[in-house]
Amino acid sequence: MSIKTIAEMTGLSITTVSHALNGTRPVSQRSMELINEAAAQINYRPNLAAQMMKTHRSRTVAIIIPATEQNNSTNCFFFDVLNGAKSRLQESGYELIVSTYPESRPQDFFSGMSILHRRWIDGILLVPPTLRYEDIARIEDCGVPVVLVDRWVKGGKLPLVCSNNREVTVEAMKVLYQAGRRRIAFIGADFPNSTAVERYQGYLDVLEELGLPRDELLICRMDAYSMSCGMEAARRVLGAGADAIFAANSMLCLGTVKELQEQGIHVPEQVAVIGFDNYEWTEITNPPLTAVTQNASLMGRTASELLLQLLDGKQPEQRVVRIPAALTIRQSHGL
Amino acid sequence: MSIKTIAEMTGLSITTVSHALNGTRPVSQRSMELINEAAAQINYRPNLAAQMMKTHRSRTVAIIIPATEQNNSTNCFFFDVLNGAKSRLQESGYELIVSTYPESRPQDFFSGMSILHRRWIDGILLVPPTLRYEDIARIEDCGVPVVLVDRWVKGGKLPLVCSNNREVTVEAMKVLYQAGRRRIAFIGADFPNSTAVERYQGYLDVLEELGLPRDELLICRMDAYSMSCGMEAARRVLGAGADAIFAANSMLCLGTVKELQEQGIHVPEQVAVIGFDNYEWTEITNPPLTAVTQNASLMGRTASELLLQLLDGKQPEQRVVRIPAALTIRQSHGL
Question: What region holds the HTH lacI-type domain (chains A, B) (predicted)?
Answer without folding.
Answer: 1-55
